[in-house]
Amino acid sequence: GLVWKGAKEFDSTYAQGKTQTFPLAQVTLKGLKDGLIGKKVGSRVLLVIPPDQAFGDQQQQAIPKNSTLVFAVDVLAKM
Known about the structure:
This protein has 79 residues and is of the alpha+beta class.
């Protein structure tokens, strides 16, 4: 994922050469969960998530408060 302002990367499974598996029900970011609901296996999804659907006014380690987040997600399987 990236922080929109400054395009600062805070996490990348691509760069780490691995995948991340998670049930959609366990996703805590509203914008990420909403953006992935109904997506088909094989989809590549680009999500731009406004602060109110991400962490809002709470800072999270490398993510400043009130940040818009960007994720590119490849849907590899359904759980």
